[in-house]
Amino acid sequence: MPPITPSPIHFGSFLVTSQVFHKTAHSFALVNIKPLLPGHVLVSPLRAAKRLSDLNHAEITDLFLTVQEVGRMVERVYGASSLNIAIQDGPAAGQSVPHLHTHIIPRQNADLDEYGGGDAIYGMLEGEDGDVGKHLWERSNRRPKFPAVDDSSRKPRTEEEMAEEAQRLAREMTRQRL
Fold first, then answer.
1. SS3 147
2. Which residue numbers are catalytic?
3. 44, 102, 108, 134, 153 from 65: Cα distances, Å
4. Distance (Å, rounded) from C-alpha 52 to C-alpha 154?
5. pLDDT of residue 71
6. Cα–Cα distance for residue pair 130/133, rounded to 1 Å
7. Residue 67: is it exposed, middle or buried by C-beta count within 10 angstroms (0-12/13-18/19+)?
8. Residues contacting residue 156 through CB under 8 Å, at least 6 positions apart
9. In percent, how much of the chain has pLDDT > 90?
10. pLDDT tens-digit profile of 94-144?
11. pTM (two decimals)
C-alpha cells in the first residue's frame, strides 16, 4: 500500500512520508522509530516550526485537534485506559529533533510498575530511549562513523515495520470517522 500522501513529508531533516498515517491541513501523525510503549506515536505541524510559540493560531488549533483525534484512535486500538501527551519544547527540555512534536503514549494500569511506576515514562522520554532524533540519525544515510551501541531490549524499527504500522493506523483513522 502506498503512503497516505504523494507529497514528501519531513520531520526536521528526515524524510518520514512512509511513517505518516494521518495528515490534516497543518499537521501530520507518524509512527515512532523506537516507541517507548506499544502505540507511541507523534503528531507534528507540517511546517517545521521548532517551538510551540512559533505556531500561528491555525497551526496550534489544528495540532491540538489532531492530537485529540489521534489520541482517541490510539487509545481504542491499543486498549489503553489513559494517555501521556507530552511536548519537549526546546533542547533544554529534551527535544531531540528541531521540529515541534507531540508524543502520544497509550497507557494501561501498572504498565510501568517494573520500572518504578507510571511516572517512569518521563525519565524514558528524557533519556536515550526517547531520543527520536538520535534513532532517526542512525537510520539515515548520515550515520555517524561510530554509532552508539544500543543494547537495550528495545531496538529501532525498520522502515518496513513502521510503514506497515502507519498503513494500519491510517485505516483505523478512517474507520474512526465513520
1. coil
2. 101
3. 12, 12, 23, 28, 34
4. 29
5. 98
6. 9
7. buried
8. 33, 34, 135, 138, 139, 150
9. 62
10. 898 999 999 999 999 998 888 888 888 888 887 765 666 555 656 555 433
11. 0.82
Task: Say how far apart CA 78 and CA 87 lie, in whole Å.
Answer: 21
What are 8's three cell numbers?
514528501
What are the pLDDT digits (tens) for 8-37?
999 999 999 999 999 999 999 999 988 999
Q: Kindly report the average pLDDT of the chain as a whole number.
A: 86
Query: Cα-flanking dihedrals φ and ψ of residue 15, to 5°?
Result: -75, 120
- How many angstroms separate the CA atoms of 122 and 78, rounded? 20
Burial of 135 (0-12, 13-18, 19+ CB in 10 A): buried
